[in-house]
Structures are given as C-alpha cells and as structure tokens.
Amino acid sequence: MSINSKETIRLILTECRTIAVVGLSSDPSRPSNSVSGYMRRNGYRVIAVNPNETAVFGEKAYPNLFTVPARIDLVDIFRRSDEAGKAVDEAIAVGAKAVWLQEGVIDATPAQRAFDAGLLVVMDRCWLKEHIRNR
User: Fold this and answer.
1) Is this structure's pTM higher than 0.70?
2) Which of 4, 27, 74, 130 has the fewest beta carbons under 10 Å from its own?
3) Backbone angles phi, psi at 60, to 5 degrees
C-alpha cells in the first residue's frame, strides 16, 4: 500500500473507528466541524484535539494527542500545512494506526515519516468526500 492508495483509504474508512480530529472547531461554519459532524452521524467516535476549545459536540476537547485518554485509530488533521508535521509526530508517538491530512493540507515530509513508521497515510483528500465515494 502507498500514501493515498484506494486500499489505504478503504482500510482507514472501515477499520479506524476512533478519530482524533486535530484542529476541530466548535464553530459550525468551519469545515472541521461539519466533516466531524458527518463522521459522528456515520458511527465514528470523534475526539476534539484543539487547545483553544474546552468542548466540541458536548464532549471534552484535549490540547494535544498526548492528553487523549482513549486509544486513537486515526488522526485527522485540520491544520495549516506548515503545522501538520507536529500532529503527525504526535500521531506516531501515541501509536495511532493512521493519519489523514485533510484537503489542502500538504506536507510530504511528515506524511512520509508517518508512512515509514508503519501508519496508513492519506494527504490532501477530504475524509467526507472519500467516505461518500466509498459507500
């Protein structure tokens, strides 16, 4: 498998049920909120990771991946491209199975680091669009 392969996307969508969303906003007009709401409505557990939030969707938000008390399957990154590397490194450190850099989030170096560490990796794709496409 490779970064962005159809098999990688399929595995993430079917096997990664607990998703830490880095950059998740409580503002319903933000893409991170609407995509995460869609994930929740489709049976995924969504955990907010954002130091500027205390709660999102009525659940506690965490300042970073190290403080999340649950096992994380997927780290979905809604941050600027130049900040994605920090979230990727945290995902590797906490033992996540996969990282997903959302549409417009492009940084090949940390994506390759995650892939080399054995994580499934998707970059510059929208989780919601891929979920609809793969239904």
Assistant:
1) yes
2) 27
3) -55, 140
